[in-house]
Amino acid sequence: MTGVQTCALPIFVADDVVDALTDVTASAPCTVGAGNEVSCALGDLGASGADATRTVTVTGHLPAGFTGQLANTATVSSPTDALTGDNTSSTTGTARPDAGVSITKTASPVAPVPGRRTSWTLAVTNAGPSVARDVRVHDDVLDALTGVTATTGTTPEPCTVATGNDVTCDLGDLQPGGTVTITVAGDVPATYSGPVDNTATVESPTDSTPGDNSSSTTGTATPRAELAITKSLTPARPVPGEPVTWTIGVVNDGPSAARQVVVTDDVPGAVRDLVVGKGDPCTVGTGNRVSCDLGDLAPGASRVLTLRGTLDAGFTGTLANTATVASPSDTTPDDDSATATGEAAPAADLSITKTMTPGVPVAGGDVAFAMVVTNDGPSTARGVQVVDDLADYLVDRKSTRLNSSHTDISRMPSSA
Predict the structure, then answer these.
(1) Predicted structure pTM score
(2) Residues 22-45, mean pLDDT to the nearest whole number
(3) Which DSSP string corresponds to 318-377?
């Protein structure tokens, strides 16, 4: 259509746009028919000047998943056109996918608890405009965790967990605006301490925004042990002068290991010769202060401790004693002390013997009666009284306390 100086009329342009395009439009006076067939009846076209050129604009939407070549040819025709060699024009181009894949990761709980399950939620999103092809997520979960799982809730499940807690999820293609949620979970060992950091990454060969292709969470394991202590006294009613025994029970209800567990017990001073059970990791200090270093106590584990001593023979009232347990891992201090009480039940054993001197009394002579009072215990005998109803025919009666080491017969310690 060049080199002709006469007016071309009428002018007709045809453009069979590729069927894959949607929402095809063309500038006036063009129309778009079935199969994206564009027709333009341009009328007359001048031989020179501004009237010698017409511009037609054809637009369409390329589907997000389109791949391969995009080819298009337009033709122009006129009954007055004598040179038809340049009446077609074509363009070709290869579709360049442009996806915007990103990943975000959140942890629950933020501070994992040893002995409990922890989880992460991974959200993989494609902001488009193109389909993200062959999307793959990788998450190298902390080796210390056990029972690691990764799920999307779809069938078949695209996630696998390999040796070393290496999680891989082959998500396939992800449409623009689409999101896939992955839940990764695992058990934190009860004895674990330290950081629980984790990074997940996503990749796709059609992703053009790699700056947001990884997401990390950080957290430090927070032990949460639940120690409890119990204490009992044997006998329930202690007898002054006899042995008493306390049994102390310590248990860790978890879920975490209880670290550096220590039991302390200030035993009353009325208990003498205090000792601890054989093999118990306890010491008895000044003032009957007992300290037991139990070390670490696993979830569900328990220890039993024994304290033995002798209650003073003269003790009266209530024998009360409290033991406490402590650990830097314990988060439930409400049940960290236990008290055992028992009302003293004194048990004395009095006896008396009486002798007369001379053995054969002489009328008109002196006669003496010796009485020996003994407490065989085990407790102090209190309020002791001796009553002797002497015969009326004895005269000049008097009493004398001889060879006694006790100035108050009313409080006689055990002879033991």
Answers:
(1) 0.73
(2) 89
(3) EEEEEEEEE-TTB--GGGSEEEEEEE------EEEEEEEESSS--TTS--EEEEEEEE--
pLDDT reported for residue 334: 86
Task: Tell me the pLDDT band of 393, cut-offs 50, 70 and 90.
Answer: confident
Please determine, for residue 396, whether its predicted confidence score (pLDDT) is greater than 80.
no
Cβ neighbours for 150, distance < 8 A, ≥ 6 positions apart: 139, 159, 160, 161, 167, 169, 182, 183, 184, 185
Cα Rg of the chain, angstroms: 51
Sign of the CA dihedral with 254 first, then 188, 191, and 194 last: negative
Handedness of CA 161, 162, 163, 166 (dihedral sign): negative
Tell me what pLDDT residue 70 has: 85
pLDDT over threshold 60, residue 6: no
- C-alpha 19/C-alpha 158 separation (Å) is 34
Give CA–CA dist 281/263, Å, rounded: 10
Phi, psi for residue 34 in degrees, rounded to 5: -60, 145
CA 109, CA 113: separation in Å to the nearest integer?
8
